[in-house]
């Protein structure tokens, strides 16, 4: 039984990683663009071409700017929204707010994309602006918001509501009470929401595709590359991205396990203190 | 907490950029180019009924394959040592963080007529197999891209099952198969349902996977919508009508599925 399950897992992981290994392998291929599946010697030429490609660097810059702005705005709006939803009195009002929040998550991406495209095209006629950076950022904020809410809301629900009141009894203004008491409590949720928003924004293709106009982001540029069936430059790009993700993951994990260990130590200390 | 003021920017944003666009889809679906009311668009959607059927069939097939492949894997991972579990979950998530266009593109190079798999077949003295631009390739692309969304929620639910419940079942005389069928499976249902939702919705509405791996011959409904908005067939009114029907169909499909879920206990499993 154990052996069977091991073999099975290896097979599934092979299925998950085979395409990625293929991409990485062919990024070092020394052949011309015509043969995508014949390996003929090691070379770094596609990497040279990649870093000399103005369009890619431009697209990368746009992607990062949009992701930072969208994640920041979505985090602030979403945190406020989560607090607002929690403070709603009526049950149906809260249901309603949550339904609207979940709408972009249950809707097919393509429908979200075209619906926003309609809005921007109509707004454009009125204002005279074009699809581009502005519409992209608005679209990204919108599809990131639900994820921020979903990360922050559980932390709010876990929080003891009396803490906020206690802070005010001790002379805090509501604003002070929020910053000194509520915010530290829900900070982990805010951070994970912001990180989620950032990664979602960097990776998004479908919604960007419908709302970008002529502005290039990395996924949109990759899409145009795959349509043209061009060079292994795209493989070089994937390899670079994969390496970046791997390094980030390792960094996050190391720091997390560090903080987890610290938390465990702190808990152990607290328990010791209680016993005394 | 009195924070009505904090709430207003968020709700204004959501109404403006989520509710209004949906209403626009509705408006466009029921009007013609001059803005007059018409049912013509919805009538034209009928022409695409076979495309709808193909999308739902392929999406459902991909979902079932993801479930059949994913459940045992989730089960295996959930029964490992804690440390190994987190490594395994990371390994499942890692490919998701690589842009899915690139991963789908990789399948193109694997499945092509002169691609990697066929080169292997030739080396082994086997005949070449035509794989790219077939329905099978599209379903494979769907399974490959969305299987992590199936595995992760199921794994989450499986780890939450209290082992003492399983032991109790054994104490009451259930054998391993009975324990699985009467305890584990029903208790993991919320994860299964959320996994199915997370795979089925994007699979049915995809247009990239079908474009890349299905060639021009395997249009799915997402491709049709894309053509109405950004492609050759520019007609946002018809595109909106198709989007509307697609949304309704997905709601109906998920509704039918929830009927099967006896417990009815729907908890969102966040990955």
Description:
The complex is a heterodimer of chains A (276) and B (271). Chain A is mainly alpha-helical. Helix content of chain A is 82%, strand content 0%. Chain B is mainly α and 271 residues long. Chain B is built from 13 helices and no strands. The radius of gyration of chain B is 23 Å and the shape is globular. At the A-B interface, helix 1, helix 3, helix 4, helix 5 and helix 6 of A face helix 1, helix 3, helix 4, helix 5 and helix 7 of B.
Give the key terms.
heterodimer; A: 276 residues; mainly alpha; 11 helices; 0% strand; globular; B: 271 residues; 13 helices; disordered C terminus
Spell out the blueprint of helices and strands:
The complex is a heterodimer of chains A (276) and B (271).
Chain A (H helix, E strand, L loop, with lengths): L1 H26 L17 H7 L2 H34 L3 H16 L2 H19 L5 H26 L2 H9 L4 H30 L2 H6 L6 H11 L4 H43 L1
Helix pairs in contact in A: 1-11, 2-11, 3-6, 3-8, 3-10, 4-6, 6-8, 7-8
Chain B lengths: L3 H26 L10 H6 L3 H30 L3 H12 L6 H12 L4 H8 L11 H26 L2 H9 L4 H12 L1 H16 L3 H7 L6 H10 L5 H25 L11
| Strand coverage percent of chain A | under 5%
- Rg value of chain B: 23 Å
Q: Which two chains have the most extensive interface, and how many residues on each?
A: A-B, 77 and 77 residues
Number of strands of chain A: 0
How many separate helices of chain A? 11
The major β-sheet of chain B equals: none
* Helical segment count of chain B: 13
Give the assembly state of these chains: heterodimer
What can be said about this structure in brief?
The complex is a heterodimer of chains A (276) and B (271). Chain A has eleven helices and no strands.
